[in-house]
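FORM 12-B: Structure-to-Sequence Request
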């Protein structure tokens, strides 16, 4: 069963969900190295509010029964508490609404514009598939259709059943919400997506995409309009 591109064989399933991005590493100019670091962005040594208790986390990451496909509760015991959603201090220059991805520390930030940022735990690209640079949210999708590329079908004929697209749902690799990243009007094929696999948060498993827990992804998605700036830091 595929659930957000990860199962017991994470490497194989990650290839199923995100294999098409790997080929882009040598074909797209999107991968522009960024010299900017956490300190320059005002995130170095952030002061953090008190973290969630387990009871609080169980509420924040509880079930979402009203969604198109009811989303189950997260087993928060499988997530390191440092990756629970938090508010941190931010004194950088990025405008409110900017998304900052810190793959080296497995965090995604949303700048709030009041001297703070919302921080989410994430999974990121595995070694050899991480990238850095600036992009923007070119479009947004709820329960997006996933279509395996032809190259993947050749490598893994079993995914040919989805050659015309896997409909949205709990087993779809893109999950409940997806932010599609663009540069210069072109879709990079990289995304920030919803994951229902708590074990993956705080690890490098993808071919360059960034996953948040479904409840965190909905929280970010609802507050992120198209054209929002995205900054991906070097790992």
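FORM 12-B RESPONSE
SEQUENCE OUT:
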């Amino acid at each position: 069963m595929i659930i957000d591109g990860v199962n017991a064989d994470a490497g194989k399933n990650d290839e199923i969900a995100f294999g098409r991005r790997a080929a882009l590493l040598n074909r797209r100019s999107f991968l522009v190295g960024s010299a900017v670091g956490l300190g320059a962005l005002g995130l170095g040594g952030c002061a953090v509010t008190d973290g969630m208790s387990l009871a609080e986390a169980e509420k924040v990451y509880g079930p979402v029964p009203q969604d198109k496909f009811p989303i189950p509760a997260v087993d928060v015991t499988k997530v390191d508490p440092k990756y629970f959603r938090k508010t941190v201090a931010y004194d950088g220059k990025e405008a409110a609404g900017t998304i900052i991805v810190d793959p080296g520390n497995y965090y995604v930030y949303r700048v709030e514009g009041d001297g703070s940022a919302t921080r989410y735990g994430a999974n990121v690209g595995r070694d050899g598939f991480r990238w850095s640079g600036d992009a923007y949210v070119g479009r947004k999708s709820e329960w997006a259709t996933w279509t395996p590329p032809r190259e993947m079908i050749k490598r893994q004929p079993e995914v040919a059943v989805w050659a015309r697209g896997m409909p949205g749902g709990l087993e779809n690799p893109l999950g409940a919400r997806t932010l599609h990243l663009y540069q210069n009007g072109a879709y990079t094929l990289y995304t920030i997506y919803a994951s229902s696999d708590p074990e993956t948060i705080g690890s490098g498993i993808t071919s360059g995409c960034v996953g948040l827990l479904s409840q965190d992804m909905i929280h970010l998605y609802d507050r992120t309009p198209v054209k929002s700036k995205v900054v991906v830091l070097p790992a």
